[in-house]
Each structure stands twice: as structure tokens, then as C-alpha cells.
Amino acid sequence: MQRRGALFSVPGGGGGRKMAAGDLGELLVPHMPTIRVPRSGDRVYKNECAFSYDSPNSEGGLYVCMNTFLAFGREHVERHFRKTGQSVYMHLKRHMREKVRAASAGALPKRRNSKLFLDLDMDDDLNSDDYEYEDEAKLVIFPDHYEIALPNIEELPALVTIACDAVLSSKSPYTKQDPDTWENELPVSKYANNLAQLDNGVRIPPSGWKCARCDLRENLWLNLTDGSVLCGKWFFDSSGGNGHALEHFRDMGYPLAVKLGTITPDGADVYSFQEEGPVLDPHLAKHLAHFGIDMLHMNGTENGLQDNDIKPRVSEWEVIQESGTKLKPMYGPGYTGLKNLGNSCYLSSVMQAIFSIPEFQRAYVGNLPRIFDYSPLDPTQDFNTQMTKLGHGLLSGQYSKPPMKSELIEQVMKEENKPQQNGISPRMFKAFVSKSHPEFSSNRQQDAQEFFLHLVNLVERNRIGSENPSDVFRFLVEERIQCCQTRKVRYTERVDYLMQLPVAMEAATNKDELISYELMRREAEANRRPLPELVRAKIPFSACLQAFAEPDNVEDFWSSALQAKSAGVKTSRFASFPEYLVVQIKKFTFGLDWVPRKFDVSIDMPDLLDISHLRARGLQPGEEELPDISPPIVIPDDSKDRLMNQLIDPSDIDESSVMQLAEMGFPLEACRKAVYFTGNTGAEVAFNWIIVHMEEPDFAEPLAIPGYGGAGASVFGATGLDNQPPEEIIAIITSMGFQRNQAVQALRATNHNLERALDWIFSHPEFEEDSDFMIEMENNANANIVSEAKPEGPRVKDGSGMYELFAFISHMGTSTMSGHYVCHIKKEGRWVIYNDHKVCASERPPKDLGYMYFYRRIPS
Fold first, then answer.
1. Where do the USP domain residues begin and end (predicted)?
2. Residue list for the binding site for Zn(2+)
């Protein structure tokens, strides 16, 4: 091959073969059909490997396939080449080095190729004053590793040049989501730089605010021009208000306001009335200081700010994060943190706990070669691949390396303390597991318990062969219902994945202190004085366990013995004990005004837990079972009409009722389902539906009406491909006392028509569970993990009721929809705190303030 012209390769190209300029076109000719120009809708990954957390910052850089636009680290690109035959990749590499200042005037060297990766997301440290970076790109042709440096417009074919430019200028795939998703960035307000502020002497107190035009004390906004405190409107912040902040803007024209209660050292919620949307104010600290608010020393709280001049209260934020204690960073396998993507700490905390469990480690990381080798062509859209990638990132230690000794010495010499723990970014994982889920895909904070059940559901749906690591959480609950009048009983079993423990507030051991504190708090708020030192209720764990074991009243109980409604009580016991017991403290409740609130309590959670006494015993001698008689079917005409008409069209949902429920802090999709399944009968009825269903794993899943169609459709949708009736209509029939199998067979026989199914049941009193039907039921079971039949064999790992605490997740804030999550895990005999990307040895693990606790069984 003739050599002419300059060589086109990059120094340090890792052994790639260099090509002369004249040979470039000829070299690419065989591969031209495989090179594509990204089209609208194509996801171009140039920040992160599909199988690892390698990036252009990594030593080997990143390879972007010029056909699929997937990215791969150096150790994974060969796998993609062998699997797909795609030969042409763009290699991206970012070189970072410390800046060398010139001898005179401290001039800095010019940064080269500064616009090459225009949309490349990188760590903030790379843009600091101490470092410069140089980006380089080249085409690499496999398997011979020919390298063609970029840009090279003169020698490359036009199609290749256009494709390369399009890849380099493409946006991140995570910014192409809806405006409400977690990757969205707020615009900087055009009024922030030159905002006028009146010198009127207004100073904002740390608490006790109320609207200047009404008596509202919630959803209050501070106008940054004149210091007025006024109420907002529900449509911006999902909170109630009379719109006085907006009226003030219309009267005065002052454009910016900040929501009180959201101000922290990291920022606050700022709204621009003129620009009609939330914005960023880069000078927020200065604007707040004008009214006496020191933003850098603030914490957002339920009722106000903590002023720097007031004696600081010991809040749960400080205790749970172990603030004020110099914590030693931890490095190596199992000590890798996760970057916060913006209220993603609920996901990070759950995943840290999950991958501290050996069964999950073996199922995913232990099977890494097989999972990666057999992954689909787009591994970014495969659950098992992304779980394995995340597990390997957390456990390998590859992304958690201690700083070099020379770097530590340099920091000491410069009197600096630069963050060394970068952690890994779960962008790809979060984007996939939250796909099509309006709550988890948003930038809002979520409930860690709901995400845990959502993850269990995904693991169930995507099990690897017969192996299902979520079985370690699975257990059977025996529910005993007793008719109070006849004393007869009925025993049933259901599947669950966590134990929900009520907070026994009435058992607080410091009631006198609590009463005194509440009186002082109210007095301080009324007189706009600093709040007193916080007094937290101290609840014995034994009282919470006793409350769990106590019978509950059964609402609207129909006694088959009396053939009438009667009083009934229900008790729950463990029909089997799981290998790993997850305990959720039910800290969140609702006041009489339907407003969610959190119990700020201290519970002495034990390191060793024995629940053997909660083992189910089944039907006892002397107990008489309730007759297996179904209650009479009474469907009022108006209710029947609602079922047949209103529920058919999801577009007719009463959005005002939905918004009333959403304002209380419930997930939007759960509110829509509540209004839908109660037939638009109002927010109060829908609220009761929410209370009954809020503990179900799919509580916040989107409303789905299978097979919804025209006249031929049944009430809840037309027959699906597998003729599996919708769970909603099954639940209606089983709530009348019929067996689940009976309900399913009746619905299948009547094309899922509720009214005809009820007639079918009464016309088939001889119904029996034949084996063929049961086999078909099992084969067609859907992914709803709550409604599964009793599992058999290895699906339940029963054993001893003795457990040892090994991890817990704590929540800071007043609601699951706000605040922050932190995880503590016991590793190698000591507690470790996982606070987003920071992983440190724990000095004072706050075991009494946790929200979710993870126990492992102690072998008997």
C-alpha cells in the first residue's frame, strides 16, 4: 500500500496501526454501509459504557459504535465487535493535567480542542482553576485497530465526516426526556443578575411565617425584591394557596420569589412570575442575605429556617449524616458510592443495601460473563445487564481507589481538602428501571420502600433461569379473621416481602417532656421566636412489635356464619420466616386534614431480633371455621352504571379530585387510579381507596386498562392474548367472598364481563378446581407479585425466626416526597455510612432513627 502524506494518528494511541492520509478513503470503503448518521430519536451514548462505568476520562477512553451509537470501555468493545460484526468505532479520550502557569503574569496555557465534546458531561473538578483538559477523538477500525485521527475533513468521505460531527455534537440521551424528568436543568433567570432589592429594612425570621394577606402558613413565597411573604397557588408547587404571591407580582411587577422552607446551602426553589416557571438564581445567597438570611448556614425544615444567630437544634439531618464528626473515607471493593442525580438518594440507598446481600452478588456479579455475553443487542435496555453492571461497579473496587500518597501530600501543602471520592453515576440504571414510571422517572424525591418493592417486582419479572435472588425476602403471611359475635374464624395466606411495623406513639417513655416541648413550640411559633430544643419521642421496640401482633378491626366485615355484616378482627402471623427480613417503620401517616406527616421518633431497634413467637399456628383445637358461603351480590343500579360507563373511558377521570389527592403528597398515578376505580365519586372516597391500597407494590404504577377498546370491550378491557383477566375486576369479585380461581374462570368464560361473570358463578355452584385449569393459571400468572398464589418449593426459604441487623436506611425530612436518604451497612465487623458518593466508616450509627431495617437470619 502506497504511503504518502502525513500520518493520521494520535500520540499514545495504545498500539493502533497508523494510516497515511491518502489511504483513509480506501480503508473505510468496505465499512461505509455500516456507518450511520444519528437520526432524531437515536440515543447516542458518549459518556458511559453500556457494561461498565468507563468514560472518556478512563484510562482506555470510550468507544462509540458508529452504527448503534452504543459506547463501550476498552475491555468490552471487543465483545460488541465479535457479537455484531460492527467494525468502525469512534474513540473518545479526555486527558486531564494540572495547569502550568507561565513565568510572567501567571498566564494559563490555551486549552485546545475545547469544543470537541460540547455536550460531554464530566465531573465539576475538571473545570476547576487547577486543571486543564484536552479532548481527542479518532476512528478505530476493528479487528486491525487502524486509527484515523479527527477532525480530518479533507481526507474522509463526506458521509463519515457528517456522521462524526453528528456524534460529537449530539445531546446526552438523558436530556431527551419529558420536561419533568430527573435530568432536566432549570434555566437561569434573566432577572437574576440585575435584580432590584428595596432597602426597606425587612428581615425574615427563621420561623413562624404567614401570608401577609391571609392566615395561610404553608406554601409561602418570599419576594426577593421587597421581602413580602405571600402564599402561592397549587398549580406550581402542588400545594394549596390563595395566589397572593401572584397577585403581588401583578400589582408591583417584582419578578422573583423563593419558597420558604426549601432554602439549604445547595439552593432553593425559585420561581419567576415574569418567565412563568421555576428558574435558577446564581446570586441567591446575596439576594437572601439582603433580608438577613445566611443561606450557607441554612437547613430546609418543616416550619422554617435555622438562623445562624440561633443556637442550633440537633436535627435528624445532623444525627443521621453524623455531621460534626470527622469520618474516615473508605475505599476498595464494596465501598463505592453513588452520585446523586438530583433526589436519587432513595435509589442509591436501596441498591447499596441490596448488593450487600450475597444472593444478589452471586446472581448478578457472579454471573457477569454469562449475562454480558448473552445480553441483547442494546444492553442499555436489559434489566439483568444493568443490574450486573451496577453490582460490579459497587463491588469491584475499580471505581473506589484511595488517593496516591503524593496527592495527599500535595493537598496538605496547599491546605486543601479536595473531594477524592467520586463514586459512580447510576444514570443508565435509573433511566431503565424508572422507564414509563411517572414517579421514579421524575426529579422528585420518592419513597425508598416503594422503590424497594418496585425493584423486587422487576427482579421477579426478569429472573435468570430458575434463580431468583428476591426469594430471600419472600415470606408467607397467615391472616386470621374472626367474627366477634360467633367467634368463628377463617384462615388465609398471602405473599409479602417486608414487615411493616406501626409506631406505638402511646407507648412513648418521655410523655411529660413531649407535652412540655409541644407547649413551648406553639408559644414560640405564636410569638415568632426561635423554636426550643427538639424533644424526640422515645418508643420501645417491644411496643411496636406488640402493636404489630394486636388484632385489627375489619371494616365492613360480612360474617358467613351470621349471613350478615358483623364486627370482625384480623391478626397477622408469619406462616414462614424469610432468609432476609426487611422491616419498615411506618413513620408516615395522615392528619385529620389529610396532610401527610412524619413521626419524628427514636426507636431502640435491636441488633438481634427474635420473632419466633409470631410464627403462625393455623387452625387451633376448639376453633370453628366460618362457613365457606359467599355474601349476597348487591350491585346498586347507579354503581352498575358507573362500572359499565364511567370506568370505561380513562379520559373522563375527574382531574380536580386527582389534584386534591396529589396535593396531599400521594403519587400522581396512584391518585388517578384511586379516582378511576371509585368511579369519579369524589376525593374523599378516592382517599379511602388509597389508604387501602397504598401498601401494594404497584401502588404508584401507571393506570393500565388492558385491551381498552370500543363496543366489544368488557368493563376493564378486552380479552388479552393469554385471556388473563385484569386484576382490578378479579379483586371486585373476590371482595364479595368468592375464590380467586372461581373469579378468573368466570371472567374467562364471559370475555371479562363483570355482570355476566357474576351470573356465571351463580349458575355453576358445582365449580371445582380442575388440574388443567390450575396449570393454565400458573402458566399465565402475571408479574403482580402481590396477587400470586401460595408459592411452593424454593420460592419460600423458611427457617429460624432469629435475625441479626446488618443494614438500615434512614430518611431525613418531613415527607417521603422530600428530604434525603442515607444507608448504613455493617461490613467486616464495623458500620459504614453510604451518603451518596461519600463512603465513610461510621462513628455513631443512628440505629434508632432508621426507616427501613435489613436483618439476616441467624442459622439455628
1. 336-858
2. 211, 214, 231, 244
C-alpha atoms less than 13 angstroms from C-alpha of 505 in its C-beta half-sphere: 11
CA 132 to CA 620: how far, in whole Å?
Answer: 76
What pLDDT was estimated at residue 411? 52
Contacts of 622 (CB under 8 A, 6+ apart): none
Q: Contact at 8 Å (CB) between 58 and 64?
A: no
Annotated active-site residue 544? The verdict is no
CA pair distance 682, 677, nearest whole angstrom: 11
Show the cell assigned to 3: 504511503
Q: Which of 80, 454, 752, 820 is catalytic?
A: 820
The pLDDT score that the predictor gives to residue 109 is: 41
For residue 514, report the phi and psi dihedrals to the nearest 5 degrees: -65, -40
Q: What pLDDT is attached to residue 337? A: 96
Catalytic-residue membership of 345: yes
Domains located in the chain, CATH noted: 21-98+131-169 (3.30.40.10), 186-297 (3.30.40.10), 330-472+801-857 (3.90.70.10), 655-693 (1.10.8.10)
3-class secondary structure, 723: coil
Q: Average pLDDT, stretch 328-348? A: 93
Binding site, by residue number, is: 211, 214, 231, 244
> Is 60 exceeded by the pLDDT of residue 636?
no
Which residue in the list 65, 164, 345, 483 is annotated as catalytic? 345
Q: How many angstroms separate the CA atoms of 11 and 137, rounded?
A: 12
pLDDT tens-place string over residues 734-755: 767 677 788 888 887 776 777 6
Q: In 3-state terms, what secondary structure has residue 325?
A: coil
Average pLDDT (567-580) is 95
- Checking if the pLDDT of 789 tops 70, the result is no
> Cβ(249)–Cβ(222) under 8 Å?
no
Higher pLDDT, 153 or 689: 689
| Closest by CA position to 391, among listed 429, 371, 365 | 365
Higher pLDDT, 119 or 204: 204
Judged against a pLDDT cut of 90, whether residue 110 lies above it is answered with: no
Please tell me the distance from the alpha carbon of residue 390 to that of residue 52, in angstroms, as a whole number: 8
Q: Is the pLDDT of residue 471 over 80?
A: yes
Q: How many residues does the chain have?
A: 860
In degrees, rounded to 5, the angle at the alpha carbon of residue 639 between the alpha carbons of residues 652 and 693 is 70
Higher model confidence: residue 697 or residue 148? Answer: 148
Distance CA 212, CA 297 (A): 26
386: left (phi over 0), alpha (psi -120 to 50) or beta: alpha
Question: Cell 431497634 identifies what position?
Answer: 605
Rounded CA separation 241/783 (Å)? 41
Cα–Cα dist 842/371, whole Å: 35
C-beta of residue 831 within 8 angstroms of C-beta of residue 842: yes
Where does 431-556 show beta strands of DSSP type E? 475-483, 489-496, 499-502, 537-539, 552-553
Angle at 78 between CA 72 and CA 83, to 5 degrees: 100
Mean pLDDT of 327-342: 93
Instruction: State how far the Cα of 754 lies from the Cα of 635, in Å rounded to an integer.
Output: 11
DSSP states of 812-828 as a string?
Answer: ESSSTTSSEEEEEEEET
DSSP state of 709: -
| pTM for this prediction | 0.69
Whole-angstrom distance, CA of residue 303 vs CA of residue 217 = 9
Greatest mean pLDDT among 12-26, 254-268, 566-580 lies in: 566-580
Whether the Cβ atoms of residue 538 and residue 509 lie closer than 8 Å to each other:
yes
Q: Which residues on adjacent β-strands are paired with residue 492?
A: 479
